[in-house]
Amino acid sequence: MKTITLLGIAFVAISLGLPVNATPMCPELLQTDNLENKYRRLAPIHTDIENGWIFTSDQLSESYTLKSEAVHLMSGIAEEFESRGIKLAIMIAPPRPLVAGDGVVKSTLGSNSVFDTVAASDSFNQMIEQLRQTGAIVPNLLPVAQEMNQFRQYYFRRDTHWTPAGAAASALELAAEFGFSDAAFSVSDVVSSDIYEEGGSLSNIVNAICGLENDVEQVAKMNYSRIMASQGLGLFGSASEDKIALVGTSFSDRYKRDQYQVADALAAASGADVSNYSISGGGMIGPMEAFILSGDVDDYSNVIWEFPYTQSPNSTSHLRQLLGALRFESSNLSPPQSLELSSSNEAAITFFDRPLKADLIQFETETANLLRVDVVISFESGKTRTIKLRRKDRVPLDRRTTNWFADLSGWDNDSIIEIIAKFDQGVALQQVSFRYQSSVEDS
């Protein structure tokens, strides 16, 4: 492993004209073209050896405001939960740079950085307000995190996730958003003497690129045992009557064991039983789609959908996939139509003779191993739209399904003349069927 010294890093940084006031952990982190492909999408990677913070480029977005299509689809998702008698809450971990603070951002990115913390903050706050307008319960965790960060770490400096204390503060804010203002505890009440050591996913990247090993970060674990033992009625009522499903990402399933105690924090804040359906690496919709299509969703009166700020609801293909899964149960689909696949795993369904108005489509295959379906829809008007249906292989096979759904609502009232489905060429398919739900009454 190569040896790196602070003096050497500083000299190279100055000679390369790197950001003023920042001392990167190594200059290669800022040289996108020289990085391996798996790191290139995260570059430039900004670091400061003095303050210890690491920010990847995907964490430095200034734009979170939702497009109109995303607002329409998120509203549809909230409405589907409401129609089932389920309260939907959306818990979004806020942007790390904004929580770290302007001083840390400037010292890490350099004083000539173009990242606008004010613009990013305004845009994130606007997204939260847009999501609240959908009817979902959506706490704004940014001011909570910024306030907490003044005396206790909300985020790790060299990992993308919140700390156990950050998770606790987030759970309490969610409780307050539900209207349970008389919380049973504060974060300081549950701080344990036990220490958790986080090596850090961002530290691993720096180690791989720079050959530099950072120290592990030590933070306190939380101890909810006293709080939970004394719980009576809470936010959602008795644990025996109301149940909460937590459906989220690695923030709620770190190392596949909820390392940051998110479910316990929510149980302590609510006084209710919390079942954790989160899947590390499952993406924004993977765990939720699996949860919905399993049928378990109907066992709960409250669902918390957790995903971080880096997972954008503006990925409308994902939202159409999830809304389609939600709408399936109450749908009136056509009889299944067997599709003939080409050598490239493509199938065409034509409606030239009788153009179709549909608001939901379904594909069913014989295997749950499929991870990609591109759906290209051509309309009478000449417009073409593509929906990219995706699943993650990190979602366990027994939690996947052979069915794929896509919601088609919210587009212009245009008739479909052709649908081309492009299935993952890496999966051998023998049987594929297609169904649709008409958006107009048959004459």
UniProtKB/TrEMBL annotation:
Main location: periplasm
Biological-process GO terms, alphabetical: alginic acid biosynthetic process
UniProt entry tagged with the keyword Transferase: yes
Superkingdom assignment: Bacteria
Keywords tagged on the record: Alginate biosynthesis, Hydrolase, Periplasm, Signal, Transferase
Intracellular or extracellular location(s): Periplasm
Signal peptide bounds: 1-22
GO molecular function annotations of the record: hydrolase activity; transferase activity
Pathway(s): Glycan biosynthesis; alginate biosynthesis
Keyword Transmembrane helix (UniProt): no
A GO cellular-component term linked to this record: periplasmic space
Domain AlgX/AlgJ SGNH hydrolase-like: 50-308
Name this protein carries in UniProt: SGNH hydrolase-like domain-containing protein, acetyltransferase AlgX
